[in-house]
Amino acid sequence: MARPAAPATPEYWDDACRHLARRDRVLKKLIPQFGDARLQSRGDAFTTLARSIVGQQISVKAAQSVWDRFAAAVGGPSHRLAPAAVLQLPVETLRGAGLSARKAEYLLDLARHFDDGRVHPTQWKAMADDAIIEELVAIRGIGRWTAEMFLIFHLMRPDVLPLDDLGLLKGISVNYFSGEPVSRAEAREVGDGWAPYRSVAVWYIWRSLDPLPVDY
What protein family is recorded (predicted)? Predict the structure, then answer.
């Protein structure tokens, strides 16, 4: 059985940490607390996005259970599923894996976008963040937040600030505003000070709330 590829880590991480520690008093204290831990990317683009759809609005444990059944139905390794194989499955099989009717439709739409070339993963490396987001949000079930998570966790783009992320807003509230609620405008102002490594800062702000890194 093929084994998952070793996770990739960003080459810019150490430079980003030094930059952020110089610029930001909160991050100067946070970064050393997590040692060598850093952002990791695993899986391929289609599989990563499929997992994000499966996991919407359900617990991590439930999402893993549904994902395992879905991957078994597709018949490929769970870290690299083929869009064409998903398209061959009847909706009843997807529902039998524990997917809602809506999520089944979303997964089929995702597979069609990859299978017929409406998204361009081989070109993403050279494309701007906003151009990639525009391609992704045209897929049913993928909004801006999911696209930004994909930019951070899969493409490992260094300068993404996901202002729709509740964890980020809570982390900024706790670390910069003594727990007082913060607006998107206030969060953006804090985040602007992290450029050009906002993704790295966001990762550490998330870790301040939950030391276990999220795996997409």
Answer: Belongs to the alkylbase DNA glycosidase AlkA family.
CA 162 vs CA 92, 110, 154, 192: distances in Å = 35, 22, 15, 12
Q: What is the pTM of this model?
A: 0.86
What tens digit of pLDDT does each residue of 76-121 get? 776 789 999 999 999 999 999 999 999 999 999 999 999 999 999 9
Q: Which domains does the chain have, with CATH numbers?
A: 13-40+160-209 (1.10.1670.40), 45-153 (1.10.340.30)
Q: d(Cα 158, Cα 169) in Å, to the nearest integer?
A: 19
Radius of gyration of the chain (CA): 18
Q: What Å distances lie between residue 175 and 17, 23, 168, 186, 194, CA to CA?
A: 17, 15, 10, 13, 14
Residue type, 37: A
Q: Are 140 and 64 in contact (CB under 8 A)?
A: no
What pLDDT shows up at residue 99?
95
